[in-house]
Design goal:
five-stranded antiparallel sheet, two-stranded antiparallel sheet, alpha+beta, elongated, Bacterial Protein-export protein SecB, 39% strand, 2 helices, 7 strands, single chain
Length: 152
């Protein structure tokens, strides 16, 4: 199990991502459109496979996404590539990560990127967006001109 709240990240020159593997499938299990779908994200950072070249740190990761009810399954494998100002900054982060201390900033960077990618993939699979969509309801009483916005 990975420990979080490791050291903070020193200043970065660049942040890049590489996706090496994408698997996504919409499962043929019928469900009611009014039933909420809960998405579960499982991020695994492969601490033993971290590589350093000069001031560049490459952090491989695997993200598994599933839903409840079970209507979608996804796996994304790739790497977060961080370029630091100084080589020793990259070495310090790699050392602390090999000890199991993953900086929260790294988890946040990966999850922000993955949520964007997952949203695009889900759209291609014909799934609704993961964010609430506002819906305007018709006035309740005749002559009532007010409308309310409700989130599904």
């Amino acid at each position: 199990m990975q420990e979080t709240q490791g050291p903070s990240l020193p200043s970065l020159k660049s942040v890049q991502f590489r996706l090496d593997y994408i698997h996504a499938e919409k499962l043929p299990i019928p469900h009611s459109p009014s039933q909420p779908v809960n998405m579960m994200f499982n991020l695994n950072i492969l601490n033993t496979s971290i590589s350093i070249q000069d001031s560049i740190l490459e952090i491989p990761f695997v993200v598994n996404i599933s839903s409840m009810p079970s209507i979608i399954s996804m796996t994304l494998k790739g790497a977060l590539i961080l370029q630091f100002e100084h080589k020793n900054d990259a070495e310090d982060i790699a050392k602390s990560m090999s000890e199991g201390k993953v900086p929260d900033a790294i988890n946040m960077i990966i999850m922000q990127y993955i949520i964007f990618e997952v949203s695009l993939i889900m759209r291609e699979l014909g799934m609704p967006p993961m964010i609430p969509i506002p819906q305007v309801q018709a006035p309740q009483k005749p002559g009532d001109k007010s409308t309310e916005i409700h989130y599904v």
